[in-house]
Amino acid sequence: MVIEQLEYNDDDTVLEAYVAYQETETKKPLVLVAHDWSGRRELACQAAERMAAMGYVGFALDMYGKGVLGSDDDTQGNAALMNPFFSDRLLLRKRITAALIAGRGIPQVDAARVAAMGYCFGGLCALELARSGADVLGVVSIHGILAADAVANQPITAKVLCLHGHDDPMVKPDQVLAFETEMTDAGVDWQLHAYGNTMHAFTNPAANNPAFGTVYSDIAERRSSQSLANFLEEIF
Fold first, then answer.
1. Distance between CA 71 and CA 92 in Å, rounded?
2. Which of 119, 89, 110, 131 is closest to 25 using CA atoms?
3. What is the pLDDT of residues 122-166, one digit of tens each?
4. Beta-carbon neighbour count of residue 7 at 10 Å?
5. What percent of the chain has pLDDT over 90?
6. Angstrom distances, CA of residue 188 to CA of 10, 82, 95, 185, 235
7. Structurally, how many domains does the chain consist of?
8. 227 is in which domain, residue-wise?
9. Phi and psi at residue 121, in whole multiples of 5°?
10. What CATH number does residue 131 fall under?
């Protein structure tokens, strides 16, 4: 497996992606991996490597800037990093579009076959890429925030998969219903898999804070991984 650090830019902001792929002569589909609110850290990089093991180019993108990272236990610091993008969806869309452009430029990538996935805040990033009308085949939100805001959407051409913990206190049933209505009204090919007795961050083995609503679930992680693999196989 080839691992590369790739610098790219969003205007004057220098960003750094973690890119993983298997060395072959054929071009491969690209899977953008958007990180959680703590930045492009180990979990996103490991997900990029899993995409590479599946035969894709994994591109763990950077929403915050090269070297700008939070930590697992700094909720205030992580929120300070995320909130400018959460409150300004046009800024968020512009930043993730910069990653899409950079990823498509990788020589090993088949630029016609691109998907985006993300965890928590990254799930929202993937959904906003779809809402921007980006020319990607599919997006996947994994325990992501589903709520739209007042920013106008472009026609959504991507297929959409959401993998959601039913007991996630950050994404309550009314938010789920609003999302389902939004996708249906937009004519999107969408799926939402809800896992019972499952909270936020269920794919993160370090998540163990029931009071905050973040708890790892081995069975939900395995089920969601299979759903993700099936979805990528279908769209590619």
1. 21
2. 110
3. 999 999 999 999 999 999 999 999 999 989 899 999 999 999 999
4. 11
5. 97
6. 29, 27, 23, 8, 14
7. 1
8. 2-235
9. -55, -35
10. 3.40.50.1820
Q: Is the pLDDT confidence value at 72 over 90?
A: no
- 181: which DSSP letter? H
pLDDT value, residue 36 = 98
Which residue's structure tokens are 């928590």? 120
Contact 75, 212 (CB under 8 A): yes
SS3 state at 59: strand
Reading the block at residue 31, the tokens are 């899977």
Q: For residue 186, what pLDDT is reported?
A: 97
Q: Which residues, 6+ apart, have CB-to-CB distance to 181 below 8 Å?
A: none
User: Closest by alpha carbon to 31, among 49, 58, 67, 70?
Assistant: 58
Q: Which residue, among 117, 121, 193, has the nearest Cα to 158 in the 3D structure?
A: 117
Amino acid (one-letter) located at 94: K
Amino acid letter at 151?
V
Q: Which residues neighbour 92 within 8 Å (Cβ) at sequence distance 6 or greater?
A: 63, 85, 86, 124, 125, 128
The alpha-helical segments, DSSP class H, found in the chain are 42-53, 75-86, 89-104, 121-131, 173-185, 218-235
Q: How much is the pTM? A: 0.97
Q: Are 153 and 185 in contact (CB under 8 A)?
A: no
95 burial (CB, 10 Å; 0-12 / 13-18 / 19+) is: buried
